Amino acid sequence: MLCGPKGSEELSISQCSVCGRRTERFELPGRPEKYCLECSADVATSILLTAEIDAATLAGRETEPLVAEFAQLSARLLERSQST
């Protein structure tokens, strides 16, 4: 049975690049690291928030709510990475 990315037979169960948990890992486009499901969602969200903050800054819009959300997300990722 083919289990890995792009039809490889290798299972993608190893350490998450953020939290270190041994579980199935997922790739994000443009990222060499692999993450567990929970961390991959947070990393993807942080990528989107960064793009939104940049776009709002360039457009002269308020960024405070986005920056606050990014700070919370960053703290959650940092806490998860330090708990291993």
How would you describe this protein?
The protein has two helices and four strands; from the N terminus they run ββββαα. By secondary structure, it is mostly helical. α1 (37-59) runs antiparallel to α2. A hairpin with a 6-residue loop joins β1 and β2. The radius of gyration is 16 Å and the shape is elongated. The model has no long low-confidence stretch (mean pLDDT 88).
Radius of gyration: 16 Å
- Could you give a short account of the major beta sheet? 2 strands, antiparallel
**Terminus-to-terminus distance:** 32 Å
Helix-strand makeup class: mainly alpha
- What is the averaged pLDDT score? 88
Which range best describes the helical content: under 10%, 10-25%, 25-40%, 40-55%, 55-70% or over 70%?
A: 40-55%
Beta-strand percentage?
Answer: 5-15%
Strand order of the largest sheet: 1-2
Number of helices: 2
Residue stretches low in confidence (pLDDT < 50, at least 5 long) are none
Our count of domains comes out at: 1
Order of helices and strands: EEEEHH
Strand segment tally: 4
Question: What would you call the shape?
Answer: elongated
Brief rundown of the structure:
This protein has 84 residues and is mainly α. The protein has helices at residues 37-59, 64-82, and strands at residues 13-15, 22-24, 26-27, 34-35.
Topology, element by element:
Layout lengths: L12 E3 L6 E3 L1 E2 L6 E2 L1 H23 L4 H19 L2
Antiparallel strand pairs: 1-2, 3-4
Helix pairs in contact: 1-2
